[in-house]
Design goal:
The chain is mostly helical. The chain contains ten helices and two strands. The longest helix is centred in the middle third of the chain and has 31 residues. The N terminus and C terminus are likely disordered.
Length: 244
């Protein structure tokens, strides 16, 4: 079972809204100056955020706990590397189809099936990895004297890029670069704000929970951006996919 299904042509009463959404997205799609600005801001924020995060965590929870988080993030990076370049190949195929089809608004059924299969598999891998870590914490295989819940939440947020990758590639393949960069920028600004706020306000657990919430919200935004191209989230399909 898959998280996404091919969404047939909408009823007449829904076409007006869909057309308006597509027109709105299309107007911002070809703004290359905006794309360059967004990419530059994202690159700068990525560098700044890494230094700010290290400073804040060392100040608030200590060097030893920060070292443990660095280890968790390294493990999360290995989980994300399960992609093995599949997203790049997916983007290449989707992009070539898009360019050869004279910029059709709707992708082919085969392209939809490819994206939904990749998103479903990656969305399953991420919670499985989180569940394994949680089991390791509970069983004492990975001893955590303090901050166990916060570690768990941070790891959950760190594996969120895995299901995000094919979604982002699918949108970008249809000239959605500006919108995906905009989502990334909002996510980075929000997480940076939460990180800085931890110096005087939120607890470490609250930081982990808010960071995870921001990641999930950014993925939901990509799902919404993919809808005009024919994708629709099926309720309950993910649970059925895990069980069957």
């Amino acid at each position: 079972m898959s998280l996404f299904r091919f969404h047939p042509l909408p009823a007449v009463r829904k076409r007006g809204l869909r057309s308006a959404i597509l027109a709105g997205l299309g107007r911002g799609t070809h703004s290359w100056p905006a794309l360059l600005v967004l990419k530059g801001l994202n690159a700068a924020l990525m560098a700044v955020s890494n230094f700010v995060l290290a400073y804040v965590l060392i100040r608030t929870i200590g060097l030893e706990s920060y070292a443990f988080i660095a280890g968790l993030l390294a493990v999360a990076a290995l989980v994300v590397q399960c992609d093995l370049g599949i997203t790049v190949l997916t983007f290449s195929e989707l992009r070539s189809h898009y360019l050869s089809e004279a910029h059709k608004r709707k992708a082919s059924r085969g392209d939809h099936d490819l994206v939904r299969a990749t998103v479903t598999i990656y969305t399953a891998i991420a919670p499985i990895a989180v569940a394994i870590l949680g089991a390791a914490f509970i069983a004492g295989i990975v001893p955590v004297a303090h901050h166990g819940i916060a570690y768990f939440l941070i790891f959950a947020g760190a594996v969120c890029p895995l299901p995000r990758m094919p979604l982002r590639a699918a949108i970008n393949a249809r000239d959605g670069f500006v919108w995906t960069e905009g989502v990334d920028l909002v996510r980075r600004v929000a997480i940076l704000a939460v990180t800085v706020a931890m110096l005087s306000g939120p607890s470490f657990v609250a930081y982990g929970a808010l960071s995870l919430f921001i990641w999930v919200t950014s993925i939901a935004a990509l799902v919404w951006l993919a809808r005009p191209h024919g994708f629709a989230l099926q309720s309950g399909v993910f649970l059925k996919g895990l069980l069957f």
